[in-house]
Design goal:
Belongs to the 'GDXG' lipolytic enzyme family. It is an enzyme of class 3 (hydrolase). The protein has helices spanning about 75-80, 130-135, 145-150, 160-175, 195-200, 225-240, 245-250, 255-260, 330-340, 345-355, 360-390, 405, 415-420, 445-460, and strands at about 10, 15, 20, 25-30, 55, 90-95, 105-110, 135-140, 180-190, 215, 305-310, 395-400, 475. The protein is α/β, with parallel strands linked by helices. Helix 9 (about 330-340) packs across helix 10 and helix 9 (about 330-340) runs parallel beside helix 11. The longest helix is centred in the last third of the chain and has 29 residues, at about 360-390. The mean pLDDT is about 95.
Length: about 475
């Protein structure tokens, strides 16, 4: 048998062997919690019992149970990763570090997106080599998704996926110094659903002391379901599975059936007399809270946390262009969408039309969609944080237009990620069906954005003026 080689790190749970390459060291599939099996899928994450000997950290971990996602001709595999890679022990982190020494470097913890039903730390777009190159320890994590992660069930704690993120942050606090990271300089950052989870952390009492800074990329501070909305999803899930809506009943069901049941939850009408559907039917899962995070920041660590937050200028294009729904859109489509998100749809459409006098119906439809999903909730979170944090809020707007899909994708949801991770020149992101399209990435944009994220993680200052309600400074990136 060949002798095992590679760096070994001692953690509180046991030793882990990684690999060393040109970017530093990589340790994969380190469990931050015990495997969620049986009824444990609906319980809070519990610490891993640890292991003897040296654990192999050279291979990726399984991923949370999840369905395949299809975005037509657009290749979203770098974003979603390999999908469901079966295995029980998927509550894990990957750690990319310049060196596992006593360097006490800034730490960034990334929470992936995917509509609360898909995604993993294994996605190519989450490669942390550039962060390690620039002196940051990057942690990427998996968390429970779909029914195990977010279905509200009698007898189970709510928001188990969020509890997983909290457990991972506690692992970082207790273990990251062994990997050359500073547990007192932790930035948690997420994109899409991961950004909404990050926003919820800002309003979560149990998150106090676990991180110093936060970054929300294309998420929302107002994207959570009300308890009434959550009950509708639970009722539909129980009906699809033919069981009572209780933890005991769901605990006996295998993960395959949970994944197979997801199509039955698509398109549920979650509008109530007091709330619109914050995800407009794009996902049947979100966090479940009585108050939106943007309205509950005083309950959590937000006042003591630096926040970098922003959206892309054409977020809604991701949900229209790959499906060939942008150009055929009509004024009726725009008004129908506006009616899903507001009591006065005509006023919503008029406001968007006034801001975009030459916009086509498709562009207006995309604007309404992007504002409802991400823009309004981001603005409310930025204002709320600015009011309590004393100049610690920084806002950006990402405007670079991808030329994918015959030049039509634009500054859509997810297009900023290759620039944040400094991967924009990778060939697998280009071509007509690649996320960034056939044209080369604009010179300097990845260096600028990645550098801003690194600087923010280290100092709290990304390189532009702070945002205040009376002086709403917004940095345009890639415009």
């Amino acid at each position: 048998m060949p002798q095992q080689t590679g760096p070994v790190v001692d953690t509180p749970a046991g030793a882990v062997r990684g690999v060393r390459d040109g970017s530093g060291e990589l340790y994969r599939a380190i469990p931050y919690a015990a495997a969620p099996t049986g009824a444990g899928r609906f319980a809070p994450a519990v610490p891993h019992p640890g292991w003897s000997g040296v654990r192999d950290g050279t291979r990726p971990s399984p991923t949370a149970p999840q369905p395949a996602r299809d975005f037509g001709r657009l290749d979203m595999s770098p974003y979603f990763g390999p999908g469901w890679v079966r295995g029980e022990e998927y509550l894990t982190v990957d750690v990319r570090t310049p060196a596992a020494d006593d360097g006490r470097r800034p730490v960034m913890v990334f929470v992936h997106g995917g509509g609360f039903v898909t995604g993993s730390a294994r996605a190519a777009l989450h490669d942390g080599s550039a962060f390690a190159r620039d002196g940051v320890v990057l942690v990427t994590l998996n968390y429970r998704l779909g029914i195990p992660g977010f279905l509200d069930l009698e007898g189970a704690p709510a928001n188990r996926g969020l509890l997983d993120v909290l457990a991972a942050l506690r692992w970082v606090r207790d273990s990251i110094a062994s990997f050359g990271g500073d547990p007192d300089t932790v930035t948690v950052f997420g994109q899409s659903a991961g950004a909404t989870l990050t926003g919820a952390l800002l309003a979560t009492p149990d998150a106090k002391g676990l991180f110093r800074r936060a970054i929300m990329q294309s998420g929302s501070g107002t994207g959570v379901f009300t308890p009434e909305q959550a009950r509708r999803v639970t009722t539909a899930a129980a009906a699809a599975l033919g069981v009572e809506p209780t933890t005991d009943a769901f605990a006996a069901i295998p993960d395959d059936r949970f994944v197979d049941a997801l199509p039955a939850l698509a398109g549920l009408d979650l509008r109530t007399t007091t709330a619109a559907d914050p995800l407009i039917g794009l996902s049947p899962f979100s966090l479940v809270l009585p108050v939106q995070p943007a309205d509950a920041l005083a309950d959590g660590p937000a006042a003591d946390v630096d926040l970098l937050i922003g959206t892309n200028t054409e977020e809604g294009h991701l949900y229209l262009v790959p499906q060939d729904r942008l150009e055929p859109s009509t004024d009726t489509d725009v008004l129908s969408l506006a009616a899903q998100v507001h009591d006065d749809p005509e006023a919503v459409v008029a406001a968007h039309r006034a801001a975009r006098s030459n916009a086509t119906p498709g562009e207006l439809r995309s604007a309404v969609l992007g504002e409802a999903l991400f823009g309004a909730g981001t603005a409310r979170m930025a204002d709320a944080h600015a009011r309590i944090s004393g100049g610690r809020t920084h806002v950006y707007s990402f405007a670079h237009r991808s030329t994918a899909l015959d030049g039509r994708l634009g500054a859509a949801h997810t297009v900023e990620l290759p620039f944040v991770f400094d991967l924009a020149d990778e060939p697998w992101l280009h071509g007509d069906t690649g996320l960034l399209g056939p044209d080369p990435a604009p010179a300097g944009l990845a260096a600028r954005m990645h550098g801003a994220w690194v600087a923010f993680a280290a100092t709290g200052y990304p390189g532009w003026a702070a945002y205040h309600s009376h002086r709403p400074a917004v940095e345009v990136l890639g415009g």
